[in-house]
Predict the structure.
Amino acid sequence: MAQFANLLISGNFASGATSYEDYYPGQEHTARIVLPIVVAGRLTLSAIVDTGAPWCILDPEVVEFLGTAIQATYTPSEKLMIRGELYEGRLLRMSLSLQAEIGDGVEVEATVFVPTLAPNDTWPHPNFIGLDGFLTRIRFAIDPTENTFYFGLL
């Protein structure tokens, strides 16, 4: 794994690297870049890298489980389109981390959109790592021949 690790890490482009999955669990028919992320230092879950998403998007049950790890809250004036559906929700600040298999991991205070669901509804979509909420705060590169995601703080 990580044939470019020495070059990217020693050249200070990246501080670490980790392997990624080609699909989100339960969605094997659709190719994705799926990374394990650590939310608020307490919970590891899978999330799709989505450079088209304005923020990270997390399952509301995950955020409810974490409770006190949430910092600020803001309700945007417009709904967010997620996979063809409009959702109201809150923007939160919380720690998201990438753990490194090679080198050092990174931790970012990310902006996360948490959809508001009707009572008894469940979140039907994956978790997402968004562009403005997380990816714009790191430097990253992808090697699809080895399923390796390189990353480092800006």
Summary: The chain has two helices and 13 strands. The longest strand covers residues 89-98. The two ends are 24 Å apart (CA to CA). The domain at 21-139 is CATH 2.40.70.10 (Cathepsin D, subunit A; domain 1).
